[in-house]
Amino acid sequence: MTEVLLFVGILVAIFVGYNIGGATTGPAFGPAVGANIISKGIAAALMSVFFAIGALTIGRQVVDTLGNELVTSTEIFTLEANVAVLFFIGGALFIGNYAGVPASTSMTAVGAIAALGFATGELNVAVLGEIAIWWIVAPIIGFWIGGVVGRYFYTRINEWVAIEENTTGSPLLSIDTSGHVPRLGTVAGVSRREWTGSLLVVVIGCLMGFSSGTSNIANAVAPLVGSGELAEDPALIIGSIAVAIGAFTIARRTLDTLGNDITNLPLTAAVVVAVISSTIVVGLSWIGIPASFVVIATMAIVGLGWGRATRTTRLSDAARGEETAVSVGALTADEEGEPSPEIGEEKVSDIPKASDLFDPTTTARVILMQNVVPLISTVGAFLTFRYVPLFGF
């Protein structure tokens, strides 16, 4: 019976990893796919490799937090409980992926494990409090860094980098499967400048994939590792393979949502947001804190737009109470490579409306599911462990 439960637990962990691949590939490579730089197949391959690198290095710290520190006794990680916890994590994420929305895997996993600890009286409130504090502080940090970059550096970055979108109609990089052996296909007639900008967007996507691996691998394997039923290295490898399967399959939905439906975010802005968010996530993973990349990135976008919009007014003018037009659409105020105007010299009329940047319907669906998915995992796990006698708590 024990062997059967362990096998089921591993299968459910694979299911969780599969859904993590679906939820995290979109945020990492959505801009590159949406800008027609790489195909979905290339995005999935890169995500698989860099996620595994992050998981096998820094990801171990987050596994230790969720598997050993979030609860005061790892004895509650029985095989039955592990299967149930992973089921709620994977099931909730699957709902988000099916809706095409990349939900926060960290919040979903922490919610399920914390529910187990709370239902059994073994929750480490201090560790949960530390995680919760960072969940509040990290998005604020992302917002203010985005704001500073938007006000003082964004137009310079835009001028220097000059990222241009691919207008050829085909991805610059794709996998050609017309022959017996798949090979890398490229598009002819692309300028060096376009290749340089495109390469930068892909490199940033790889950084995001790495940061996802550092934070999210624990969500799939921490209960099994914490219980001692599965050694850490095999668990990390199994989880990474499951993520790769998700990246090549169900992630196509979230790639469409993040690459095309929700936003027309300029590539320069997407690169800035990715660097800010990935750096924060990797830093938190280094100290063992599971972080939500999606939430941090969202606040970085808002901060970047706010800082960018406030360039129409000098700080001295704002101190005198003069009105400042603030719009997230300010991110599209300049064309790539356009010379940077001085602060206070930009025209308010040049700032597009926020509706030109975000699709309201898709954005509302994303915000709703971002809150519903972790709630399903947490509430479902708590009610199960508290009132279902099967687990013997």
TrEMBL record:
Q: Name one GO biological process term.
A: phosphate ion transmembrane transport
Compartment list = Membrane
Q: Which InterPro entries match?
A: Phos_transporter
Presence of keyword Membrane: yes
Single GO MF descriptor: phosphate transmembrane transporter activity
Q: Which GO terms describe its cellular component?
A: membrane
Query: Topologically, how does it sit relative to the membrane?
Result: Multi-pass membrane protein
Regions that span the bilayer: 6-29, 41-63, 83-101, 133-154, 199-222, 234-251, 263-281, 287-306
Keywords from UniProt, A to Z, are: Membrane, Phosphate transport, Transmembrane, Transmembrane helix, Transport
Record carries keyword ATP-binding:
no
Q: What is its main location?
A: membrane
The family assignment reads: Belongs to the inorganic phosphate transporter (PiT) (TC 2.A.20) family.
Q: What does the function comment of this entry state?
A: Potential transporter for phosphate.
Task: Quote the protein name from its UniProt record.
Answer: Phosphate transporter
Q: What is the lineage of its organism?
A: Archaea, Methanobacteriati, Methanobacteriota, Stenosarchaea group, Halobacteria
